[in-house]
């Protein structure tokens, strides 16, 4: 056996044999409101929205959150027949007649937005991509990308700028005007309009990307504001590494000539960027790269906070994920094998908390971190896509969002024997002998909630950490304790499916079992507890890659 392999086995054994971690929470040590930044979701394929499993999943996402859920999707302006495909979608909202006159058709895009609005969800409405009739390079227009192919194959005619900026502005004006007429002024005022996606990368096929993007933004903003002066618009949805692109976009909006109006500056109601991790497959296992995702967040917050004119501007992490390709399954990309099990759950819990921590450090105003995962219709069960559900059955990761949806009130300070924080993870990842056992807590006048996780970058779920939890200054003498859990035995449809023999086509009875296994489960029945002098202590045995929600309610 190679020394490196032996060392790896010894390291994993040490991780599995975990000790105790002490965590203290004081309800009087508040850090500010707990913003539901997790109540944001997104996906590439807009036509899945109104399909069977898409509608089911959207209903579940709407139900898990006490506040309206925002939804972002690509390809809303693409030309086509509405056929759904991986990393593709279309609405055919804009074509031209034989004389080059615009022809508007809102039927498909309306069906998408109607699906959101009837569930009291709200669009993070993406102005993109380029209709075929407006593209400077329309042929070939549609792509037919499949997992395992070169990612650049997706960049066809839709990824080019408009050949006529006046028609581009008029299209956007007509779309927003139509939305106001259909949904009402007050409703559309509550949306966010955004331009494009990752224009610094593959998604905008020009040499001078920043100049072209800013010009497109000027005309897009003019169209949005002409239809609804009170509408909110922003950008640039740059990739995680595109700090200079973000800086130049901000500078343009604040100080440079507006190509559409001739005036100085452009409206900017929020800023958006992306943050992605970088998992690898090594030593026959997945090793996550949360440090990369947090560095992306840190990079952009540092730049945004350097502009005093933008103090408190809303910030949206438009895609906030462990890596970059939701439609790349684990068979073609083995580093994505974390997606079906509890590792995706513990990663999500730990990363959300560290994003909040970085937001505190910079004094910025993150309002949303879009989880870029949805569902893929008519695909193999548990194929390893980055998704919240497979064939209508919820994956473990969806239950993290159910947990967070039960948290509200003032965020509380966490202290104790804690090995990791955002700075430590950015520097070294979670790769030592100790796992990341930590928590996110909040309290309102009638309840306390604590999200607790046991995460490590290495995909190992054996071994247990014992958490000695002390909660102080609970304003009650009697209360009820609820303990929810995601682990190998709870809230885990994937493990149940494997125990069934991994059926390619589950029977109706198996489907019912899987559907139930995908729901959030309790570790124990609710328990009446006594609070002594405002203090309650609890010992929690937390397996590797597991997540718990401790909730205490009182009058």
Brief descriptors of the model:
single chain, alpha/beta, TIM Barrel, 2 domains, 13 helices, 24 strands, 30% helix
Topology summary:
Layout: H1 3-16, E1 20-33, E2 40-43, H2 52-64, E3 70-73, E4 94-96, E5 102-104, H3 107-117, E6 122-127, H4 165-183, H5 185-189, E7 192-195, H6 209-227, E8 233-238, H7 243-255, E9 270-276, E10 280-282, E11 285-287, H8 290-304, E12 314-321, H9 342-362, E13 365-369, E14 389-390, E15 393-394, H10 396-405, E16 410-416, H11 422-428, E17 436-443, E18 447-455, E19 464-472, E20 478-486, H12 493-499, H13 508-517, E21 521-522, E22 527-530, E23 536-543, E24 547-553
Parallel strand pairs: 1-19, 2-3, 3-6, 6-7, 7-8, 8-9, 9-12, 12-13
Antiparallel strand pairs: 1-16, 4-5, 10-11, 14-15, 16-17, 17-18, 18-24, 19-23, 20-21, 20-22, 20-24
Helix pairs in contact: 4-6, 7-8, 8-9, 8-11, 9-10, 12-13
Account of the 3D structure:
With 555 residues, the chain is an alpha/beta fold. The protein has helices at 3-16, 52-64, 107-117, 165-183, 185-189, 209-227, 243-255, 290-304, 342-362, 396-405, 422-428, 493-499, 508-517, and strands at residues 20-33, 40-43, 70-73, 94-96, 102-104, 122-127, 192-195, 233-238, 270-276, 280-282, 285-287, 314-321, 365-369, 389-390, 393-394, 410-416, 436-443, 447-455, 464-472, 478-486, 521-522, 527-530, 536-543, 547-553. The chain folds into two domains: 20-30 and 410-553, Immunoglobulin-like (Sandwich), CATH 2.60.40.1500; 35-405, TIM Barrel. Strands 1, 16, 17, 18, 19, 20, 21, 22, 23 and 24 form a ten-stranded mixed beta sheet that branches. The chain has 13 helices and 24 strands.
């Amino acid at each position: 056996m190679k020394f490196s392999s032996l060392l790896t086995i010894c390291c994993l054994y040490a991780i599995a044999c975990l000790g105790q971690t002490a965590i203290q929470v004081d309800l009087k040590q508040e850090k500010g409101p707990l913003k539901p930044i997790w109540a944001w979701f997104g996906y590439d394929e807009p036509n899945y929205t109104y399909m069977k499993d898409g509608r089911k999943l959207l209903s579940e996402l709407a139900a898990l959150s006490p506040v309206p859920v925002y939804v972002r999707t690509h390809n809303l302006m693409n030309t086509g027949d509405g056929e759904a495909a991986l990393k593709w979608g279309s609405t055919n909202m804009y074509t031209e007649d034989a004389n080059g006159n615009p022809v508007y058709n809102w039927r498909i895009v309306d069906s998408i937005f109607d699906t959101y609005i009837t569930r009291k969800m709200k669009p993070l409405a993406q102005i993109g991509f380029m209709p075929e009739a407006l593209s400077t390079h329309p042929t070939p227009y549609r792509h037919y990308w499949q997992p395992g192919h070169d990612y650049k194959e997706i960049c066809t005619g839709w990824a080019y700028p408009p050949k006529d900026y006046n028609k581009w502005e008029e299209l956007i004006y007509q779309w927003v005007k139509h939305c106001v007429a259909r949904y009402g002024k007050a409703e559309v005022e509550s949306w966010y309009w955004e331009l494009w996606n990752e224009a610094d990368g593959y998604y905008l096929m020009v040499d001078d990307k920043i100049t072209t993007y800013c010009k497109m933004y000027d005309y897009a903003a003019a169209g949005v504001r002409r239809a609804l002066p009170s509408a909110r618009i922003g950008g640039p949805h740059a990739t995680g590494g595109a700090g200079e692109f973000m800086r130049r976009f901000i500078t343009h909006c604040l100080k440079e000539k507006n190509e559409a109006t001739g005036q100085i500056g452009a409206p900017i109601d929020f800023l958006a960027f992306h943050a992605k991790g970088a998992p690898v497959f090594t030593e026959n296992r997945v090793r996550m790269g949360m440090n990369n995702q947090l560095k992306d967040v840190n990079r952009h917050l540092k730049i945004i906070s350097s502009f005093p004119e933008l103090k408190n501007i809303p910030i949206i992490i438009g895609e906030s994920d462990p890596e970059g390709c939701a439609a790349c399954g684990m068979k073609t990309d083995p580093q994505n094998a974390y997606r079906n099990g509890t590792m995706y759950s513990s990663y999500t819990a730990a990363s959300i908390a560290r994003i909040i921590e970085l937001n505190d450090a910079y004094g910025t105003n993150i309002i949303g971190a879009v989880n870029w995962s949805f569902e893929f219709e008519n695909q193999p069960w548990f194929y390893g896509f980055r998704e919240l559900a497979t064939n209508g059955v919820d994956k473990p990761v969806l239950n993290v969002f159910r947990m967070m949806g039960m948290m509200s009130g003032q965020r509380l300070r966490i202290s104790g024997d804690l090995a990791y924080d955002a700075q430590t993870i950015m520097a070294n990842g979670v790769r030592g002998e100790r796992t990341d056992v930590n928590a996110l807590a909040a309290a309102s006048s009638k309840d306390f909630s604590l999200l607790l996780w046991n995460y490590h970058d290495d995909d190992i779920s054996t071994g247990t950490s014992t958490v000695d939890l002390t909660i102080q200054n609970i304003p009650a003498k009697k209360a009820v304790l609820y303990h929810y859990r995601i682990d190998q035995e709870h809230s885990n449809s994937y493990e149940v499916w494997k125990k069934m023999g991994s059926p390619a086509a589950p029977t109706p009875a198996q489907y019912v079992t899987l559907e139930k296994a995908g729901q959030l489960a309790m570790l124990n029945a609710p328990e009446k507890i006594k609070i002594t002098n405002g203090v309650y202590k609890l010992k929690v045995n937390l397996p590797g890659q597991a997540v718990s929600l401790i909730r205490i309610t009182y009058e």
